[in-house]
Amino acid sequence: MMARAPEGAGHTIVVALGGNALLPAGERGDIHQQFAHTRKSLEPIVALAGEGWKIAVVHGNGPQIGDELFRNELARRELPPLPLGVLVAATAGWIGYMIQQSLQNALERAGVARDVVTVITQVLVDPEDPATREPSKPIGRVLSAQKARLLAQELGWKVGPAQSGWRQLVPSPRPIAVVEREQIRRLIDGGTIVIAAGGGGTPAYRDPVLRLEGVDAVVDKDRAAEVLAHDLRAEALLILTNVEGVYRGYGTEHAELLRELTAAEAETLLDAGELGRGSMGPKVEAALDFVRGGGRRAHIARLDHGLAAVKGDAGTVITAD
Fold first, then answer.
1. Does an H or E element contain 150, and which?
2. Least enclosed by CB within 10 Å: which of 41, 73, 154, 172?
């Protein structure tokens, strides 16, 4: 009898990994702690690789980019400050290095023969999008209201309430396409696991004279993962987070985990405001865009339930109508 091929053999999946998975809230977050969290976060990716999936990994950088901006501002009287777009590329490099090295080691221990590479990625945005100029995306660590107002006054930041405190706000336009999509596709088709669109990718636009030009903004990593998944014609999008999946009435005593949603059902929840603009809402919007754009299914699950979610045994799966 012929051996049955692994479930993921020949299929492409894009995995979105949050920056908070590498630097949890309330932790000092030195590089040793971030490496330790990175190693723990990679179990579902190793499992998917063992199942034969072709994989692209997109990671967030919310806490890390906030720290880089703070370092930038502290040193501004000694060194020329770097613009936000350049700092996004910088975090994509060193976070990509952490994930790449940790994943290479984990794959070798598991006996899975796959190469891993990081691609510094640009994502196209619309320069006329109002979100390109309006600071609305929270980044960095959670601050007290007093500390946030002090930094806003000293450094010219825009700050606002987020989660259990205050955070810095920066522009966050919607991504349109991944510039390096063909190079990423060739690597993935050859069996390489690609870490791409780190921190959502560095936003850029096409100028009629200068060609590609950078934008000082950040892109939501879940939206970037959806666009990359569409560009790669992936079968599945997996968004890993710190909760079990999508809930109706999240945070209330009547909270209900929703294991399966059609696109129409997901849209109804969004329209009703049940998912939260800054928390689960953007993840469901990304999943919705993916399945309505031709993707087969999108999964939202807890970090350590990645493979189980793809198999339909955990998390929330969203499918087209």
1. helix 145-155
2. 154
